[in-house]
């Protein structure tokens, strides 16, 4: 099928098998390898991307399902050469260790901020409860997101 | 105490920018022209002979070959061996003729795409002829069914000291506990993967997101009968290991496949394959008996432990010895005896796992210490204070001196900060019909590398370039914890040069100097920063010597200042870059040193954890409300990274205490080989973690540093179990304390 979607702000049109997983479409057809695969069943959150404003595990979405939709991946967070506030806070708080889960956490947090720029600590935890990190114990990740929430305009 | 310029300060990690941008290339993000993908066919039966029917699979477009044991050099190896001086039982093969666990490697699909691999995998038919299965330690010990050879006993070790009979005679009580710890999965979020190719000169090049490039080179040299010089192993980016990638595995599969096909090969695993088909933490069953006197003195301890080694010999010797040595470096006990036995079972081989044996050992011994305190009616902290080691105590079984052991200081500081006395005496007053509250404490010890046990050294080449930047060639493996950044700060300190001007390499067998053991055993910060300090000192001497020889300035007048050399009583300044140029131009020599470094000590690192829990007596769910981690860290290199280790270590080991376990049925099937069924702590489960760093500055250590990464993943486990037992009045010793186990204990208690 012919897929038409907006990925990281740019129109994309590709002839693909509609039953392909979204993660494979992003990584293989579009070369957007920032989205990571950790469990292939929507449990680890490493493959989280934002589809029409919602954080979704891209391993459980079929490429056909994004028809006409809008996708934001980790590669689309930076705007005009400037890091997203969340990215800056992850770096300054030491919220990144091996970095494999990081894009997924950032996209979950970004989806939250898109809907709710001033989330509570509990809302932040809810937003990232589907993301697993084995390195950090989550504490610096929560601190980074909380700090970003404080600075959100 | 020496004031440091860089060490001890909070620096942002240099590699975190590209990680935040998603630009870091992990192996799964890399491709090579003409590359084949490889997917292993893993056995679905725990012990069986088998025939592979690959006819339909081979018809899948894009499938290149399906290899079996017959296509692979029949060379046995032991993936735990990291240098040629160790010879364990070698019984692992790249591909196997008989399956000995669910997850054993019985075939390898090579195809032009992952899609073709997956399609072919679905079409491979395997006919199994089942053989009897040893799925638990009890069956293994009976020796009725044999995994291999004449007995399932793979390794046995007795070690002890002191007058046991005398101690027992003097004791008022002998407090005994039996307990068990589970097999757990490391759960690096990056599943296992490796890539290999043959370069333009016909050499084999292997990309390893692992911890031991030189060991992978050694193993491949043996398997392929290829000289070391023709094999290059490069550490690539890694998405976590925790010991799971400490034994080379897919590096060997990819290396052999690339060599046989003369094409680039990337072997990948999915989550289930990583969970069943690599390595796990060894499960254990232990009996601990401690002889105590009423006044609180521990007189003697006997520890008897069985280890579930899995289907191959792999780490049987390592796990028993690593577990044993940590028994002797925490308490002053006049007599101790350890008896350890590792058994073969038809299960995934055991392997290194964060804190190697420490989590299993302290899991039971620290619960036993609490039990003993209860028996003599003493506060568990006071009881520990009466028995913990003192600074510079000897290791009673001949290991290295304990060094400036500050475990008592950790305990005292923690008691105060946690308000231990008040909580321990009163927290249960909050108990009601539904909830019970309790607090617990636990202590633990760990090492700093292999000094005292195995060859322990590292070589470093340090170069100051004419542009004023420094390159430190050293074979370390970044696992995510910030090793490179920690070492950058130690190099900055050693050279008096800003960290951003320093590059630390990752291990590469062709380019980085030889290192004795890889990034394991909590050796890196301790050993490598010692090497960097030595190299830095020598390089600074060379800097002064250059100015002495070329500019005729007396070395006594020279001092460094942030990448420059200044002259006392003069306003002359030379940058390091200028000096490098002077040296090359006038002395025909680059400004560099190559050094060999051996540490001459191995002080013990310590941690004490305090936990507060709320247990739901109706559901059995445990909420860890507070955790305080106190670490005798010697000297924190970068406190931000240290905190990250301690917080992550807590997540790791609270999982073993509360929910993580690979569950096997009697046929050896893993019942929870997916993340939906294997429960690790998510953000909602994590307690706040308060941290106190006790900077004891061990004099024998470079910059005073001691280990933390592994050390952090031990004490929180038994602290939480002790807190649960405090809350409920139970004596639970079987990890993990799942809701089912807690409800069962409450029902038994009535």
Q: How would you characterize the overall build of this protein?
A:
The complex is a heterodimer of chains A (153) and B (750). Chain A has two domains: 2-76, Ubiquitin-like (UB roll); 85-151, [2Fe-2S]-binding domain (DNA polymerase, domain 1), CATH 1.10.150.120. In chain A, 33% of the residues lie in helices and 15% in strands. Chain A contains five helices and five strands, in the order ββαβββαααα. Chain A has helices at 22-29, 85-92, 102-115, 121-127, 139-151, and strands at 2-7, 10-15, 48-51, 54-57, 70-72. Chain A has a five-stranded mixed beta sheet with strand order 2-1-5-3-4, with helices on one face. In chain A, a hairpin with a 2-residue loop joins strand 1 (2-7) and strand 2. The N and C termini of chain A lie far apart (41 Å). The mean pLDDT of chain A is 97. By secondary structure, chain B is α+β, with helices and mostly antiparallel strands. Chain B is globular. The longest helix of chain B is centred in the last third of the chain and has 28 residues, at 524-551. Helices cover 29% and strands 24% of the residues of chain B. Chain B folds into three domains: 32-131 and 192-268, Aldehyde oxidase/xanthine dehydrogenase, a/b hammerhead (Aldehyde Oxidoreductase, domain 3, Alpha-Beta Complex), CATH 3.90.1170.50; 284-392 and 400-448 and 603-749, Aldehyde Oxidoreductase, domain 4 (2-Layer Sandwich), CATH 3.30.365; 452-597, 2-Layer Sandwich (Aldehyde Oxidoreductase, domain 4), CATH 3.30.365.10. In chain B, helix 6 (213-224) packs across helix 7, helix 14 packs parallel to helix 15 and helix 17 crosses helix 18 (716-728). Classes of the chains: A alpha+beta (153), B alpha+beta (750). Chains A and B meet through helix 2, helix 3 and helix 5 of A and helix 1 and helix 17 of B.
